[in-house]
Amino acid sequence: MSQEILVARHSEGADVPAKPVYRPEVQGLRALAVLMVVTFHVWFGRVSGGVDVFLLVSAFLLTLSFMRKVESGRALDLGRYWLHLFKRLLPAVVVVLIGVLAATAVFVPRSRWAEILSQTWSSLFYFQNWALAANSVDYYEADQSIASPLQHFWSLSVQGQVFILWPLLFALAALIARSAKLRFRRVVLLVFGSVFVVSLAFSVYETYANQVHAYFDTRTRLWEFAFGTLLVLALPYLKLPRPVRVAAGWIGLAAMLSGGFILDVQGQFPGYVALWPLVAAALVILAGQTGSAFGADRLLSWKPLIRLGDMSYALYLWHWPILIIYLIWRGQTEVGLTGGAAIIAVSLALAYLTTRFVERPLRSKQWAEKKRRAALVIALCVSVVAAPVVGWQQMLRSQNEQLQANIDVNNPGAAVLDPEFAYHGEQDAALAPLYDRAGSDYADLGAPCTGRFATEAEQLQGIGCTEYVSSPDPEKVLVAVGNSHVQQWLPALAPIAEARNWTVIGLVRGGCQFVEYSDGISEECNARNRDALQYILDLRPDAVLTTATYSIADYPHELLPGGFAAMARTVMDNGIPMIGLRDNPRHPIDMAQCPETFGTDSQECNPAYESVRAPDSPLDVMGAIVPELRLIDVDDLVCPDGSCPAVIGNVRVYLDENHLSATFARTMASGLEPRLLEALVDS
Asked: Which of 202, 281, 373, 401 is the most buried (most CB within 10 A)?
């Protein structure tokens, strides 16, 4: 985003470009693109397509630079190029990261610290997009206050990766051209044309199959960069009359500005629909300097736009963390007109200061152009961020180790519900888990099924089938199957299984309750449930455990999942006992953060039972529908004494508004065990 707008003029069919000329309209294009990104993020909560314009312009400028080098016979000197590039990009990144860390310490709850510290590393080293893809972060999440203030680094990470890959591809093309005695441009067309076709095809496929992951996947974006490279190759042959270029400029500008409102971006990006902003930007570049009083280039060459284009990189870096930290600080999910205007004004001011006092001085300093000095600048940049992050993470790690050392005494959890329990821990002991780990305290599914428990079913590969507790010669085999509300019970089952020599297999997938085929759920969940059922019928475990009800935030708070009774009968008709758990409550607020936000003893953190639970248990209705189903109600363990608190026995009950924390679930084992044994008595 910070490359100079120097564009070479070419004579048709020539291999050696003429002297490069300045193209102010490309800088103006960049300014409009960043304005689209900022305003859409701040006020509309949508994706504008402006980032895709940045990707194209980046590839366009990079291609021009390397084409000039190769065709003029100069050495590519890739090491010098990369050092020079990241020497220019990293200082502004460091300033923003330090600003985000400082704001995090002041305005962001401790529960978010670990996530932000982790993403600081991925942002600094240009792999943020892969970190977000691995965590299945939804870029279109309506509530932006739960987003990371560093989430926008995904696009910079993609660009950073391409800035390493593209020069290598140009070097490969130059080598092929020399070895095969082919024209360099033809080889470039072949290499990058292949990248365009393969990446576009993959982008369309992955966007359809897993759109959330596809959004951040570098492979689904390479074709957008290749489009910019191919545009450079095509420009010398696109000689259009001035009236056509004037029309092309305005059509491209209109299409670029309107795309975010017209397109179904949420459902289709970054597949072929991303051609819209790319073609729009290409039309503006193709129009070029028309020399017409009516050309779009007159607007794009407007000096205020040029100045904004000069600081577009810094503006992109600053606007998102300011927006997200503001939302976190104010406890809001969106900003209004006035608040949004203030966020944009602050972003512009910080972008100007960063450009004026960080970017430009380092760009103009001749002493930093030498390789060793450029490498020193990069090393200093990394050190400035690494030092506070390492120290901060070490502090959190030390605090957690101290808590874990005394957790059995200081944090009894559900054990305090035993009438004979006596507390012997510290009176001022910290809540477990610590605030910075509360939101991630979930059952680990890292161990895949192996041996006789392995499966070839595609929907159950990886963590879809986990051998949560394993015994070489188990007394019983229990399969826990269902959605994330089944996964949260695995830590409660583990102590029971380990003490009784059982094996516990988890067949869990978020959002997929174990029900018979239904039009009301995704085909992915239907396919997964078919595979899970077949796995169970083939394995013939001693029992199957799942949730038999479904909790919702609004009245009546609990429902019977459609298709569950039919699935239960299918399992039991094959001679396999099935156990149905009552789902836990859903709350309107994040109960993990509630103690720090409102106080452990507050009404918000101790809602009345009837405010989150049905007047009559739907488990009784399910028992009447399927009498053979063995049912377990554990409401007394999560909602004792007429309320459903956020903290029991100095342990956070929840990791968010509706999932039990793994720490609390483990303390429920003693209360769950007799009910589970009773349900299994005939198996």
From this structure: 281
Note the maximum CA span of the chain: 91
Q: pTM of the entire structure?
A: 0.80
Strand segments (E) across 101-259 = none
Q: Inform me whether the pLDDT recorded for 212 exceeds 90.
A: no
Q: What is the model's pLDDT at position 8? A: 43
b/e map of 122-146 (b: 16 or more CB within 10 Å)?
bbbebbbbbbbbeeebebeeeebbb
Confidence of residue 368 (pLDDT cuts 50, 70, 90): low
Residue-level pLDDT at 98? 98
Given a contact cutoff of 8 angstroms between Cβ atoms, the answer to whether 536 and 571 are in contact is yes
**Digit-coded pLDDT (tens) for 516-525:** 987 778 888 8
Contact (Cβ atoms closer than 8 angstroms) between residue 457 and residue 535? yes
Backbone angles phi, psi at 301, to 5 degrees: -95, 5
Q: Could you tell me if 617 and 609 are in contact, meaning their C-beta atoms sit under 8 angstroms apart?
A: no
624, 651, 623, 627: which is closest to 637 by C-alpha? 651
pLDDT digits (tens, 9 = 90+) for 619-653: 999 999 999 999 999 999 999 999 999 999 999 99
479 by Cβ neighbours in 10 Å (0-12 / 13-18 / 19+) ranks as buried
Q: What is the pLDDT of residues 474-498, one digit of tens each?
A: 999 999 999 999 999 999 999 999 9
605 contacts 594 by C-beta, under 8 angstroms? yes
* Closest alpha carbon to 39 in 267, 351, 242, 316: 316
- Sequence-distant (6+) residues with CB within 8 A of 398 are none
Contacts of residue 493, defined as CB under 8 A and 6 or more positions apart, other chains included, come to: 468, 469, 478, 480, 504, 545, 669, 672, 676
- Give Rg (Cα) of the chain: 29
H or E element, residue 90 = helix 78-107
User: What domains does the chain contain, in order, with CATH numbers?
Assistant: 24-140+148-387 (no CATH), 442-589+610-634+664-679 (3.40.50.2300)
Helix (H, G, I), strand (E, B) or coil at 525: helix
Of 515, 508, 507, nearest in space to 560 by CA: 515
Helix (H, G, I), strand (E, B) or coil at 478: strand
pLDDT of residue 682: 55
- pLDDT bin (cut points 50, 70, 90) of residue 123 is very high
Query: What average pLDDT is seen over the chain?
Result: 91
Lowest mean pLDDT among 236-240, 435-439, 468-472, 565-569: 435-439
Residue 552, exposed/middle/buried by CB under 10 A (0-12, 13-18, 19+)?
A: middle
